[in-house]
Design brief:
Blueprint (H helix, E strand, L loop, with lengths): L6 H16 L4 H8 L3 E10 L5 E10 L7 E7 L5 H18 L4 E7 L8 H15 L8 E5 L5 H15 L20 H20 L7 E5 L3 H14 L2 E6 L4 E3 L6 H11 L13 H4 L6 E4 L18 E3 L8 H9 L5 E3 L1 H4 L2 H15 L5 H26 L3 H20 L4
Parallel strand pairs: 3-4, 3-5, 6-7, 6-9, 9-10, 10-11
Antiparallel strand pairs: 1-2, 2-4, 7-8
Protein name: Glutamate dehydrogenase
Keywords: Oxidoreductase
Family: Belongs to the Glu/Leu/Phe/Val dehydrogenases family.
């Protein structure tokens, strides 16, 4: 029996089982690698604006602390559960290890719907959540970051709550906070920039000219929007498809990004931008393009639609967008579709979060140019290692990436041993 249930954790467990078989990891060593070290569940009572008292459920899962503190985002989502949080923590462990960061994976969040909360209610939820986490987090134990439904302001509230408890400013307790409070230049754009940079590397690998390429980006939040803008404005890619939770747009001649940017800045969502280019959100994934970037939720590429994808590069900006069943089909199409797996593709965010943590610890800050140069260096190193391993072993990019990550965590556990 385990508390970690649900389709997202089942997917993470299945992926790990495939890699464990590939690496010939003995059965009696697998549970220690897969299951989290610690899971915390808390109740968060909040006085609502209407005078009522409402209790939200909050979670934090710390996968392993073998290589250093855990690291991971905090998600505010209406349907969040501990199984989803645990899966995201597991994926974060492999991601950090692949990038060579001295972290284990963590993830946390609150089951709430941020758009339905007033600013005062959101602040109350944020502060009470961090207050409940204080016995379990520190700059040496677990460092939080933003995720879906949270942002720089929430991280500022987290930092302030923790700092008030300590009696002095502790900027290194969270990353992704405002630059004025010790955040780093380039953090907000880091994940999307990383996606675009790795797409450019993939284009080089398969001989595709970005300036003559088209892209569809599913999910127009922070990661998706920055990915789209960077692909278009830095590399000359024509963006033909975009979607968020309210609308999907497709135009084979290219969408007007500048006008869309103004619309989203004004309205907050894509809904209402255009009727002429509207398309069903599920159908958008199957339109012809050179680059497909799923940057929204988990499990959007399945066995049902994987065979109908018509892209040349699949760049996984989201965590866990491709199910294991879909992976089997994509593996058969390896010569057609170049997959940049999620633990590589969206690792730019945690890499620059690491840079922020380091800068806060030493109280010495870098320019945005320095941050971006260091980001590209680490991304290039990880990309090349994955490519080399995939070529040498004749395996998919996902198998190569996950194998590297799992091996590094396993080696750390083996070297440290098991405390009696």
């Amino acid at each position: 029996m385990t508390i970690y249930t649900g389709p997202v954790f089942d997917m993470a467990r299945t992926q790990f089982g495939i890699i464990a078989d590939h690496l010939d990891i003995p059965l009696d060593q697998r549970d220690r690698l897969l299951y989290p070290k610690r899971a915390i569940a808390v109740s968060i009572p909040v006085h609502m604006d209407d005078g009522s008292l409402k209790v939200f459920q909050g979670y934090r899962v710390q996968h392993h602390l073998t290589l250093g503190p855990t690291k991971g985002g905090t998600r505010f989502s209406a349907h969040l559960d501990v199984g989803e949080v645990a899966a995201l923590a597991v994926w974060m462990s492999w991601k950090c290890a692949l990038a060579g960061l001295p972290y284990g994976g963590a993830k946390g969040g609150v089951a709430c719907d941020p758009p339905m909360l007033s600013r005062r209610e959101l602040e109350a939820v944020s502060r009470r959540y961090m207050q409940e986490m204080i016995p379990f987090v520190s700059p040496q134990t677990d460092v939080m970051a933003p995720d879906m439904g949270t942002d720089e302001q929430v991280m500022a509230w987290f930092m302030d709550t923790y700092s008030m408890h300590q009696g002095h400013a502790v900027s290194e307790i969270v990353t992704g906070k405002p630059v004025a409070l010790g955040g780093t230049e380039g953090r907000r754009e880091a994940t999307g920039r990383g996606v675009a940079h790795l797409v450019r590397r993939a284009c080089d690998a398969i001989g595709l000219d970005p300036a003559r390429s088209t892209a569809i980006v599913q999910g127009f939040g922070n990661v998706g929007s920055v990915s789209a803008y960077t692909l278009a404005r830095r590399y000359g890619v024509r963006i033909t498809g975009l979607s968020d939770h309210t609308a999907a747009l497709f135009d084979p001649d290219g969408l007007p990004l500048d006008a869309i940017e103004r619309h989203v800045a004004r309205e907050g969502v894509l809904r209402g931008f255009s009727r002429e280019s509207a398309i069903d959100g599920a159908a958008l994934l199957e339109q012809r393009c050179d680059i497909l970037v799923p940057a929204a939720l988990e499990r959007v590429i399945t066995a049902e639609n994987a065979g109908r994808l018509r892209c040349r590069i699949l760049a996984e900006g989201a965590n866990g967008p491709t199910t294991p069943d879909a992976d089997l089909l994509l593996d058969q199409r390896r010569d057609e579709i170049f997959v940049i797996p999620d633990i590589l593709c969206n690792s730019g965010g945690v890499i620059v979060s690491y840079f922020e943590w380091v800068q806060d610890l030493q109280r010495l800050f870098w320019t945005e140019t320095e941050v971006n140069n260091r980001l590209e260096q680490l991304l290039d190193s990880a990309f090349e290692q994955v490519q080399q391993r995939a070529s040498d072993r004749g395996v998919s990019n996902r198998t190569a990436a996950m194998a590297i990550g799992v091996e590094r965590v396993r080696a750390g556990k083996r070297l440290r041993g098991l405390f009696p």
